[in-house]
Design a protein that fits this description.
Layout: E1 2-3, E2 7-8, H1 16-39, H2 47-58, E3 64-69, E4 72-78, E5 87-91, E6 95-102, E7 111-118, E8 129-133, E9 136-142
Helix pairs in contact: 1-2
């Protein structure tokens, strides 16, 4: 298991570029889902199937699990990247954004995945750690002992 670098943000505003990228990807998913609907002859009643197929084709939304244990959040993500150089993590006290990309061995298009998660309560950004191995990303985010936005005067 190799340790990953994490971009740490002082506040959620630093996540805006990643969130904007995610929003654009979701627009692509919506467009692709509509294309699938049209390709099926505009048959109604399968909109969820179209959306999920488009999400898989465009976004590659990886499966993720968030658990709470001993004052920290433990996040496990099945990640398509073949090595940690294809993984980018950005965290703030309230959110985690994962981007992953891997090239196909046969020279086909790369596989991209993006996932945004909100922590149930604020975390200590400086204490967030991540590791990757055998296709599994593990993030440990200790809960913050002070509320977000609190500071000494």
């Amino acid at each position: 298991m190799k340790t990953l670098n994490i971009t740490r943000a002082d506040n959620s505003l630093a996540l805006v570029p990643a969130i904007e990228e995610f929003r654009q990807l979701m627009e692509q998913v919506a467009s692709r889902a509509y294309q699938l609907f049209e390709e099926r002859g505009r048959e109604h009643g399968k909109d969820m199937d179209d959306w999920l197929a488009a999400e898989k084709q465009i976004l590659g939304m990886p499966a993720a699990e968030l658990k709470e244990s001993h004052g920290a959040y433990l996040i496990t993500v099945l990640c398509p990247a073949s090595n940690q150089s294809g993984i980018s993590l950005i965290t703030s006290a309230t959110d985690l954004v994962l981007k992953a990309e891997t090239s196909r061995a046969n020279g086909g298009p790369s596989v991209k995945a993006m996932r945004s998660m909100q922590y149930p309560s604020p975390v200590d950004v400086a204490g967030v750690r991540a590791s990757f191995g055998k296709g599994v990303l593990r993030v440990t985010a200790p809960k913050s002992s002070s509320p977000v936005g609190a500071h000494d005067d």
